[in-house]
Amino acid sequence: MRKVLLLNSSYEPLHICSWQRALLLLVKGKAEAVEKQNRQIANGRWPMPIVIRLLYYVKIPHKELPLTRRNVLHRDGYLCQYCGKKGELSIDHILPRSRGGKDTWDNVITACVRCNLYKGNKTPKEAGMELRSKPCRPADFIQFELSKHRQASAREVARWRKYLYFFD
Predict the structure, then answer these.
(1) What is the separation of C-alpha 60 from the centre of its chain, rounded to a whole number of angstroms?
(2) Of 39, 53, 71, 82, which shows the fewest CB atoms inside 10 Å?
(3) DSSP category for residue 5
(4) Strands of 88-128, DSSP E
(5) How far is Cα 160 from Cα 168, in angstroms, rounded to an integer?
């Protein structure tokens, strides 16, 4: 599925949406196409949008990235943070929940089932295991969302670069 970069009226990146959602915003007159492809959609009436900009300014409060299984897996590159293998992955608490560990970005990592079972109800140090990287909260919501779409739509992302001041 093609993705479209949605900009605020100030050209600040807001969101990455589907081309269907972008087309709806264009048809309703709430946005304008900033970058588009030659390919036509909707019975040839509209060019395929790549970047759209809202015609009005939307004030967005600081957006916290939710702590979800999918986001933790993506942050950790879909690799076990103990052995580095891909495959059957689960979420592991560095300080186990039974010992007061919380569901926070700093305390959860991706682990394969084998390593998770081996570690059990211990800390990595107690189990003699070492983490490949220190877990932390992703710094920027848009940058994190964008990184999810890099492989699937490299051509669109290349055209988004000039609107993403933090990209390089």
Answers:
(1) 18
(2) 39
(3) E
(4) 89-93, 108-112
(5) 12
